[in-house]
Amino acid sequence: MINSTLKSSMLKTIAVAALCSAFSANLFAAEQTTVIRKGENASFEGPAEYFTGKVKVDMLFPVAEDVNASGAYVTFEPGARSAWHTHPAGQKMVITSGVGLTQEWGGEIHKLYPGDVLICPPGVKHWHGASIDSPMTHLVITGDLNGKNVEWMEKVTDEQYQGH
């Protein structure tokens, strides 16, 4: 029979060993390189509720513990665009092909070309999409705040899209 002092000491030792083991496993896992192959993450069409025209989203990586942002390639067919929206933790995008358009609420429309970088600060109401005569693809990194990366609003009207 084990006395209570020895039993308590053994339980503490086991608990400390378990915590150390779990901690070292997490450290090891955090230092390993992960390769996500093209096509491993699902692609999907941008929902009509949030986009006008045909939009394809190719997810690259989701929000994770080590990086609080997601990444994707988003392709807009000519004339396609997002609805007005904001990002609670901001968004950065690099135009990779085609000609894009973007506008802040109350501001002018800006054309975007391959290699251009668009930085959308947190909480700024804006839209982005392709020009009327060219598709546009961008690489987008979107921050996450408390499990949310976008707040969708009303659709961009044809008049707004055309700059009237």
Automatic annotation (TrEMBL):
Signal peptide: 1-29
Keyword line: Signal
Keyword Signal: yes
Keyword Protein biosynthesis: no
Domain Cupin type-2: 73-141
Any Pfam family the entry gives: Cupin_2
PANTHER family per the UniProt record, alphabetical: BLL4564 PROTEIN (PTHR43698:SF1), RIBD C-TERMINAL DOMAIN CONTAINING PROTEIN (PTHR43698)
Name recorded for this polypeptide: Cupin domain protein
